Amino acid sequence: MMTATQLFQQCPELTHDYVVTDRVYDAFRTCSGDINALHVDDGFAHDRGFSGRVMYGNILNAFLSHFAGMLLPTDRVMIHAQDISFHAPFYLGDTLQLQVRCETVSEAVGVVIYKFKFTRDDDGKRRLIARGHIQIGILA
Amino acid sequence: MMTATQLFQQCPELTHDYVVTDRVYDAFRTCSGDINALHVDDGFAHDRGFSGRVMYGNILNAFLSHFAGMLLPTDRVMIHAQDISFHAPFYLGDTLQLQVRCETVSEAVGVVIYKFKFTRDDDGKRRLIARGHIQIGILA
Fold this sequence. Notes:
The structure is a homodimer.
Chain A: H1 4-10, E1 13-19, H2 22-32, H3 37-40, H4 42-47, H5 58-71, E2 77-86, E3 95-106, E4 111-122, E5 125-138
Antiparallel strand pairs in A: 1-3, 2-5, 3-4, 4-5
């Protein structure tokens, strides 16, 4: 079993690219049952000032499940808590870069808190899409 | 266009049941790409003290997308921010009751913050599964 300190030492920070593919979008729509016009109707989204159907912000929380479950150096983890704030819309086909950095290690309770942000390349500059925190607990 | 105060007046609180069906589970797994053993391997989950494959906590955030996009009295909304803490595991086939209650209305910026909790019936008692906040912005 890995300790919180070992998790921090082996993964103090990490960067990973996620692509919002048709498959990701379709699966999220199916999972959530959310067919709000903003997410499925380009015309409605255009009329509200967006360049097309706005992707579901909670797709990013699904990507964070992948980060916790698949990218950490141990699979014996569980998400305890998360927060996220959305700063700019993203669209079908976008590549979003996730950057995480360890913020707090609580050895006594086996918890590591990572700060994260998702950014997208906009003409050579990184544009902030969302940011927040994810608290990871270590399982026995 | 609905104002934040009107949104609060028309939806001060709300209750809705969500079922974690195979379809929801499969779609979340596809969306996230998270195949951590805790979520896909009953034996692994049993060995960690759970009664079976633990469902992805972020399925609840997908349900919150449905709440924001489909259950509010206007479709002209967007999630600005969310936080969630997970208090107990949930399993395939569980019916989870979402209860939301308006906490803050910011008329000047067109924002309403709802407190939420997900609970499950455990032998006649409501067991807390997760709770948090969701900040909803109103679109023009």
